[in-house]
């Protein structure tokens, strides 16, 4: 599983390697084809505001945006595809400064908030949504389960 992390935010007080490992863990747990590729980009507030306005039509910055790439992506397709078996799952864009504010409100660290947001973005790329109450319950339950499993696997606790 190839996960590419590009930090264009200027924020450096988190571990990019761990963020990439979390993303790989989530993709593996969700049984995404191991040849899939994911891009995780961290941007500053102004860049996130621009993306939020341009693609969502909403003012101000947001914490996470997900941009799927391959419309034909199916998480369960066979690993024995003979054509080009790699697929770009998409891009997850995170804003560490928004994450830092949210983390303070939630009572945990910014790195934990980035893990929550990255997991959330990946689930969006996999087709999960939270527009309806039932969808929201399902997505949040899965997100919490993935993060709890990550905490156990990484020995990270919940800091």
Strand adjacency order, main sheet? 1-2-4-3
Overall geometry: globular
- What's the CATH first level? Alpha Beta
The fraction of residues assigned to DSSP E strands is 15-25%
Summarize the structure.
InterPro entries: MetalPrtase_cat_dom_sf_prd (IPR023091), YbeY (IPR002036), YbeY_CS (IPR020549). The chain has one domain: Collagenase (Catalytic Domain).
Provide the descriptors you would attach to this structure in a database record.
159 residues, 16% strand, alpha/beta, 4 strands, Collagenase (Catalytic Domain), 4-stranded mixed beta sheet
Describe this structure in words.
This protein has 159 residues and is an alpha/beta fold. The protein has a single domain (2-154), classed as Metalloproteases ("zincins"), catalytic domain (Collagenase (Catalytic Domain), 3-Layer(aba) Sandwich), CATH 3.40.390. It contains five helices and four strands. It has a four-stranded mixed sheet with strand order 1-2-4-3, with helices on both faces. β1 (2-7), α1 and β2 form a beta-alpha-beta unit. α1 runs parallel beside α4 (110-125), α3 packs across α4 (110-125) and α4 (110-125) crosses α5. The radius of gyration is 15 Å and the shape is globular. Residues 75-82 have low confidence and may be disordered.
Give the topology.
Blueprint: E1 2-7, H1 16-29, E2 36-42, H2 45-56, E3 64-68, E4 87-94, H3 96-106, H4 110-125, H5 133-154
Parallel strand pairs: 1-2, 2-4
Antiparallel strand pairs: 3-4
Helix pairs in contact: 1-4, 3-4, 4-5
InterPro entries: MetalPrtase_cat_dom_sf_prd, YbeY, YbeY_CS
EC number: 3.1.-.-
Keywords: Cytoplasm, Endonuclease, Hydrolase, Metal-binding, Nuclease, Ribosome biogenesis, rRNA processing, Zinc
